[in-house]
Amino acid sequence: MEIIKGAGEWARPAAEAASDWVEHLKSPDLSIGTYCIPAGGVDTQSPHTEDEIYVVTSGRARIVTPSGAAEVGPGAVIFVPAGEEHRFVDISEDLALLVVFGPAYGSRTDTPA
Questions:
Q1: Cβ 30 vs Cβ 103: under 8 Å
Q2: Which of 29, 33, 37, 78 could make a disulfide contact with 23, Cβ separation 3.0–4.6 Å?
Q3: Domain regions of the chain by residue span
Q4: Positive or negative: CA dihedral 81, 86, 90, 95
Q5: Contact 29, 104 (CB under 8 A)
Q6: CATH topology of domain 20-102
Q7: Contact 53/77 with Cβ under 8 angstroms?
Q8: Where is coiled-coil annotated (predicted)?
Q9: Whole-prediction pTM value?
């Protein structure tokens, strides 16, 4: 067992950064981290080679994918399959996301399906 302190908690990105990603735990089968984007900020991420679950712990925004868009806020749980374009936009409140990757982030080197 491991207690992961600070996971999903808001932290302001460095002054020159648009967002902040901190990985808290990594095993071969999954990884957990926190992704923070300030209100009015820009989500600059690219599609990942791993499946991903976001849990919104604080803040408000919209998530946009090729299949549609949705308003998200605290408590929202979002699944994004490997390779799917996705972006958080219209970030109206500082956004903190607990992120779970399966398998671990960066562990797949091939191109997603």
A1: yes
A2: 33
A3: 20-102
A4: positive
A5: yes
A6: Jelly Rolls (2.60.120)
A7: yes
A8: none
A9: 0.89
